[in-house]
Amino acid sequence: MATEEWNRIVTELPSRLEDSRAYTAQGRVAAYIPELAHAPGNALGIAIMNGASGIITAGDVALPFTLQSISKVFTLLLALMDKGESGVFAKVGMEPTGDNFNSMLKLELVDPGIPFNPLINAGAIAVSSLIAGADPAEKSERILTFFRQLAGDPTIGYNDAVYRSETATAHRNRSLAYFLKANGVLEEDVEEVLEVYFKHCSIEVNCTQLARMAQVLAFDGTDPVTGRQLIPRRYVQIAKSFMITCGMYNESGAFAIRVGLPAKSGVSGGILALVPGKYGIGVVGPALNAKGNSTAGVHLLETLSTEFDWSIF
Ligand code: GLU
Q1: Considering only CA atoms, which residue is closest to atom 6 of ligand 1?
Q2: Cβ density class 149-175: b for 16+ within 10 Å, e for less
Q3: What is the pLDDT of residues 132-174, one digit of tens each?
Q4: How many angstroms does the Cα of residue 224 sit away from the middle of ligand 1?
Q5: Are 127 and 118 in contact (CB under 8 A)?
């Protein structure tokens, strides 16, 4: 049943989105993975799902984009389901770094040299190694199957051009991974772990598919469309905690203050956000600020959260 708030979102979303679109001019599309540079810098789209009964979209919702770092939330969840908390937290910590997402600085400063958290690249690479499966192909297949289940869409797949582009240019991620191998965090073959990592970063969605994935988290692991519990509640609680403390790169503190919602962004300009017990939200706006977050996407979420009093704090 549509609430008063839902009806107001229906009415206001198109103009709110167009107001925020102006902020795309302040950002730049990521180019360090060459294939990502082709994304349209002035695009902005959003989908909001409210459990079983409805979806509201505005802007460039059909634009496909790769999950990039957003995928790290879901590989963390799958690793927790495969290895449990003790298995995961033996290899990765629980703290924000204050450093860039691809930094290796702290790996040498702490003992043991495990990544600080699962949402920075080093941590997500460690998490990729924890996914159950006999080889990289089986691990990747399990990840894709899990993501399809969360999105309620068996057609979701990889963007092969982005996958190949990242594989060919990921010198920094390679060095991080070899460092982790030297530190004993990775037990498997480094290139095999990286294959799993690059593949899940290159899984492609649109805003609607992302919103559906987000709402499983908004409803504590239950898909509100089917009523099926897809993820144990405790693991969703862990993922949401990381999203608040580390989900928006080095802007997670400001985002918590200004928006106040669990969220995760990626360098393709996607943002997954959720309003607990209410909405799953998928946003895309490829123009990024210096921290790596979508300029217009963050502006739109801030506007909506302020207007509808969504902050969880
Ligand atoms: N695949 C990207 C990388 O490893 C993900 C980064 C991101 O979205 O933050 O550089």
Answers
A1: 69
A2: bbbbeeebebbeebbebbbeebeebee
A3: 999 999 999 999 999 999 999 999 999 999 999 999 999 999 9
A4: 29
A5: yes
Which residue among the candidates 71, 72, 91, 140 is catalytic per the annotation? Answer: 72
Q: Which residue ranges does the chain devote to CATH 3.40.710.10?
A: 2-65+205-308, 69-201
**Residue 265 falls in the annotated catalytic set:** no
> How far is it between the farthest Cα atoms of the chain?
56
In the sheet with 203-205, reading across from the earlier edge strand, the strands are 65-66, 203-205, 157-158
* pTM as predicted: 0.97
Topology of domain 2-65+205-308 in CATH is Beta-lactamase (3.40.710)
Which homologous superfamily is 69-201 in? Answer: DD-peptidase/beta-lactamase superfamily (3.40.710.10)
- Please pick, among 23, 29, 69, 278, the residue that the annotation labels catalytic: 69
Encode pLDDT of 178-198 as tens digits: 999 999 999 999 999 999 999
- Mutate which of 33, 125, 289 for ligand 1? The one with the most ligand atoms within 8 Å of its CB, which is 33
Q: How far is CA 298 from CA 89, 254, 301, in A?
A: 30, 11, 5
